[in-house]
Design a protein that fits this description.
131 residues, mainly beta, 5-stranded antiparallel β-sheet, 4-stranded antiparallel β-sheet
């Protein structure tokens, strides 16, 4: 398992050796994405958590482990902000891709509304006394 940011995406790549392993994205929400790899084994030295927070993208950590109940390999990606994962399956690997850039939020200055009608005036209201 590797993590690498590029210009467009932050990518988690899981290498698959042999045939018969299938990967399925079983959970994806605003804070977490979880991938299950069935028909695969994970060597003990690859059971770990990678800290990707210093790259400034949507991925905070990536953890890989073997689920004791099912025997499946799980890869859990904790997110620092909402990001929709894309699952790409290629010969010998699976990639989870997350958009590197945060969604752009634009703002516009909206002028104050002009209110008119009975008693409306464009002159400022001041207090005057009548003698």
């Amino acid at each position: 398992m590797t993590f690498a940011p590029d210009a467009d995406d932050h990518v988690v790549t899981i290498g698959l050796a042999g045939a018969g392993a299938t990967a399925e994205l079983v959970r994806a929400d605003a804070r977490r994405a979880e991938l299950v790899v069935r028909g695969a084994t994970l060597p003990a030295d690859l059971t770990r958590t990678l800290d990707a927070s210093r790259f400034g993208g949507p991925i905070r950590t990536v953890s890989s482990y073997t689920d004791r109940a099912s025997g499946d390999v799980r890869v859990v990606v904790e997110l620092s902000r909402a990001a929709q994962p894309r699952l790409d399956t290629r010969a010998g690997s699976v990639q989870l891709r997350f958009a590197a850039a945060a969604p752009r939020v634009t703002s516009q200055r909206v002028p104050s509304p002009v209110i008119g009608g009975f008693g409306a005036t464009s002159a400022p209201v001041t207090q005057t006394s009548v003698a």
